[in-house]
Design goal:
Layout lengths: L6 H4 L4 E9 L2 E7 L4 E7 L5 H13 L16 E6 L4 E5 L4 E6 L2 E3 L1 H5 L4 H4 L1 H5 L3 H9 L5 H35 L13 H48 L4 H31 L6 H8 L1 H47 L8 E3 L5 E3 L9 H15 L5 E4 L7 H13 L3 E7 L7 E4 L2 E2 L14
Helix pairs in contact: 7-11, 8-9, 8-10
Length: about 450
């Protein structure tokens, strides 16, 4: 994995060596530290490994790191630390008085505070902090970035919450629309009783006119029959009354003319009557009887259509807010990409917590957590080139070697403890003292 290194990191102050006497479980221990990489203090449980780290914290960090009972077996504790910048730090005497000496003369805790990082002395405090607190420590490295990220995170949360609420409503509307049944075969809008009554009145009027025309045709037929009877009667009279032939012939001619006209009228009436179609009022009568039931079905269909339309509109709004949310997130990613993070793949998520290689803190491995913590510690105070690491026995040898190589590559110094007497340890403590060579098995060179 590629890493970012800066000149400042390489120039951080390191611990060159230290001597500890009569502090907690330690009787007498001297450690010469590698300038870069991992210096491991090994030993079984309860032998004084952590006491060495406590001594460093007290010497460099001040009285807030003073052990509650520093003396070993009633003997006064003493700590001597030599730093890579030429400064020597001592604590000894009844009250553990501090003495700081360097190229420029004497100094005190204020001088140490200029280059000693409190997080480097107490890495567990960083590792046990909440996700957002870790992110805040990282953002403190970049002035002004924290406020910008905080504003963008707030905007992301606001848009996300609004979109989520909208999505819930849209889903509920969609489900409501799906639960409503659709009734086929009903009008698209409610029926009007007044309209139906008018339709019935119009139909009845047309039917009445048709009846009148039929009666006219019937009267015409009767007229034809009457005329025919007159023709027969006048014919008989012609035969009987030759004397009155002229008069009868004239009347007969007139009767024939009337008969012809009557037949023409009959034919026209019958032709008109044949084309007449009475309107069936049964459907209208049925609609009038069922108007309330029909209108209820119409309203139900309209309610379903309205619910579907509203659900569709809400879905469109949800999609638009998704685009808005993606834009804000992209702006936030671009802002984070504009700064050089202490580690590649280290960022801050929408929730304001640290993310490394796509994982939140609780999803990182133990070695990844240590790597992130050490990198942020170095970035918070580049003047401090070391970090204390307790209880590294959780790492297997391969992971431990990888972590040590990573520290070396970044120009950092790690001083750690491990419940082990293996070759990976720089020194081994037994009963508060560095184990004598003859008590150890033959050891091969094992450096990180």
């Amino acid at each position: 994995m590629s890493t970012k290194r800066t000149k400042t990191e390489d120039e951080g102050v390191k611990i060159a060596c230290l001597q500890v006497e009569n502090l907690k479980r330690v009787q007498a221990v001297e450690v010469v530290c590698d300038e870069r990489g991992l210096t491991l203090i090994g030993g079984r449980n309860g032998q004084g490994k952590t006491s060495v780290l406590d001594a460093i914290c007290w010497a460099l960090g001040g009285d807030r790191f003073r052990p509650s009972n520093p003396d070993h077996d009633g003997k006064e504790a003493a700590v001597h630390v030599e730093l890579s910048n030429g400064i020597t730090v001592e604590r000894k005497g009844k009250n553990g008085a501090l003495k700081v000496m360097g190229p420029a003369g004497k100094g005190g805790q204020q001088l140490l505070n200029e280059f000693v990082n409190g997080f480097a002395l107490n890495l567990p405090k960083f590792m046990q902090a909440g996700g957002t607190e870790k992110a805040r420590m990282l953002l403190d490295v970049f002035p002004g970035l924290g406020k910008q990220i905080e504003d963008l995170n707030a905007e992301v949360k606001k848009v996300f919450d609004e979109r989520h609420a909208l999505g819930v409503i849209a889903e509920r509307k969609k489900k409501h629309a799906e639960d409503l049944s659709y009734i086929a075969g009903v009008p698209g809008k409610p029926l009007s009783g007044a309209d139906m009554a008018k339709r019935m009145q119009d139909a009845l009027s047309r039917n009445a006119r048709n009846d009148a025309m039929r009666r006219d045709a019937q009267r015409a037929a009767e007229n034809v029959e009457a005329c025919d009877a007159r023709v027969r009667m006048t014919g008989k009279r012609v035969e009987e009354l030759q004397a009155a032939l002229a008069d009868a012939a004239q009347e007969h001619e007139k009767a024939v003319t009337d008969s012809t006209r009557a037949r023409q009228s009959l034919a026209a009436s019958r032709a008109t009557a044949a084309d007449l179609q009475d309107e069936d009022t049964t459907a209208i009568e049925r609609e009038l009887a069922d108007i309330e039931a029909t209108n209820a079905k119409v309203r139900q269909n309209a309610q379903k259509a309205a619910a579907e339309s509203e659900a569709s509109d809400l879905a469109d709004h949800y999609d638009a807010m998704t685009v808005q949310l993606d834009a804000v997130r992209a702006k936030r990613i671009q802002l984070l990409a504009s700064v050089a993070m202490p580690l590649d793949d280290l960022s801050i998520g929408d929730d304001g917590e640290l993310i490394y290689s796509g994982q939140h803190w609780d999803g990182m491995s133990g070695s990844e957590q240590l790597r992130v913590a050490a990198a942020i510690c170095a970035a918070v105070k580049p003047e401090c080139g070391f970090v204390l690491l307790d209880k590294l026995e959780a790492m297997d040898l391969e992971t431990l070697a990888e972590f040590g190589a990573w520290l070396t590559e970044r120009g950092l110094q790690g001083i750690g403890t491990r419940v082990s007497t293996g070759d990976e340890c720089s020194i081994i403590i037994e009963d508060g003292m560095v184990a004598e060579p003859e008590t150890l098995k033959t050891r091969k060179e094992y450096r990180f």
